[in-house]
Structure prediction request, 484 residues.
Amino acid sequence: MTNPTAAILIIGDEILTGRTREGNGYFLAGVLADAGIDLREIRVVGDDHATIVSAVRGLSAAHDHLFTSGGIGPTHDDITADAVADAFGAAIGVRDDARAILAAHYAACGMEFNAARLRMARIPEGARLIDNPVSAAPGFSLGNTHVMAGVPNIFQAMVASVLPLLTGGKPLVTASLRVMRPEASVAEAFGALAASMPEVAMGSYPFVQDGTYGTNLVVRGTDPQQVALGLSRLRALFPEGQ
Amino acid sequence: MTNPTAAILIIGDEILTGRTREGNGYFLAGVLADAGIDLREIRVVGDDHATIVSAVRGLSAAHDHLFTSGGIGPTHDDITADAVADAFGAAIGVRDDARAILAAHYAACGMEFNAARLRMARIPEGARLIDNPVSAAPGFSLGNTHVMAGVPNIFQAMVASVLPLLTGGKPLVTASLRVMRPEASVAEAFGALAASMPEVAMGSYPFVQDGTYGTNLVVRGTDPQQVALGLSRLRALFPEGQ
Prediction:
């Protein structure tokens, strides 16, 4: 059985204009690796309806899961829910279950349940709500697409809510060896080892430390025995590695 | 005249597996905003030939410029140059100009010019080299696609080499107002103002400070007078803002 695949779609002009350094993709990439879901693409697009619709259609069709981040708040530039509904041809409007969650939350906090906040109860027909323990306003899953907030602590809480509901695969196992040699001086032996072990993926990542070149050699795979074997062969090639 | 558009393609399994937090996209997004080049998409894909070819074809056709990051080093997992050549139907091999640059650099440093390093002189036919003042091995521009290294300081140096050769447009101008009110309580007035000023884009970004909700209201556009007008109208709406 092969692992399910996934893509992440990050939505927001603030990323593309250089205002905000995106971190939700990085967070979720690590979580998916542990869950045995193979992340194949991260895409960042702006707050444009047609672009979001097109990206949701393409990425949800190409992968087992699509996770989105951003654009489900109370303001006019929050257009993700409508775009996802359009992408799947689903109707969208204020849903009673979402409204009840928000009403209870604002009553408990003594906050006004105004028109802007009611906007966050707009959920596509047929979607399942994603619990938001931070600020109540829910995300939702429509088909294989999981729609979450962009604010990092809320995004992370929503990931924790939705991930246990998904069927994962074999966790990605990683091992690495750090050698104080430039990448080019390990390339030939490392490449030959990688070619001899197609069951795992091997990558090399150069760095400079105190003016000296070094390389991290990484072995990745879903079979822990193969990854351990790859690491032991790496150690044999580069006994000085750590 | 409208600004030219661009996309960024980040290539590397280390991003999709959660090993590395990507930062080149964030860096270049800011540079492009200042250069008057509208960034429309950032995409991250893994070290897979067919996926890179397809992404390069799609993104280079859809935008005035495509910038890529990663996969042009000396090891077996550096496959970007071949994939970009394939995407444009260009031949690729060791090129004399690139070999001469590398030979001079390694001679000056007393480093061996081995087979792995020679791999970095593989440049598609018809490409223009991008200067790499950090470690010599060049990037290249093929058509509208600018291929650069993933190591951040080398990526930044290559951006500095290639950007002055491109024709930009009007720089993106940004102004913002910080109000200590939750996003939902500014949404109605802010949305109405945004709708009345289609010449600029307006976005809102919530935050929490010492347990209190606040919102950054941002005005963006390429006409500085319109952005200033937007900011002054925002100040009139929210005189307590800073």
Residues 5-165 of chain A form a domain with the Molybdenum Cofactor Biosythetic Enzyme; Chain A fold (CATH 3.40.980.10).
